[in-house]
Amino acid sequence: MSKKRALIFAAIHFAILAVAFLMAFSSTMSRFDAGSASVPLMETVLDGVVTVLTAPLLLLARIPGTEGLADILQWPLIVANSLGWGFAAETLFSLFRQR
């Protein structure tokens, strides 16, 4: 397992998450400002991507009693989430590469 490659995977994950989040947020705000009730397909897809990429973090944020903690540790938790995804991707990459 390469730590460098795991960090690269984590950086890629973080970049995709940030872009998807900003695009989804922008789409939602544009729709809100225009007063439109219909949700475009792209917004639905982006919301799904953000939900999947933040899956472990969202599960932790829903634990009772951790509401204020998420505000204090928001960015460190997002980075930790990306690191977790990066090391998981590196583990899978290493396993498939050995075969």
Structure commentary:
With 99 residues, this protein is an all-alpha fold. The chain contains five helices and no strands. The longest helix is centred in the N-terminal third of the chain and has 32 residues. The two termini are 14 Å apart. The mean pLDDT is 86.
Features of the shown structure:
mainly alpha; 99 residues; 5 helices; globular; single chain
What order do the helices and strands come in, and which of them pair?
Layout: H1 3-34, H2 41-53, H3 55-61, H4 67-72, H5 74-98
Helix pairs in contact: 1-2, 1-5
- Largest sheet composition: none
Spatial extent as radius of gyration: 16 Å
Beta content comes to under 5%
Strand-pairing-aware structural class: mainly alpha
**Unreliable residue runs:** none
| Helical content (DSSP H or I, runs of 4+) | over 70%
Q: Give the end-to-end Cα distance, rounded to a whole number of Å.
A: 14 Å
Précis, in short:
By secondary structure, this protein is an all-alpha fold. The chain contains five helices and no strands.
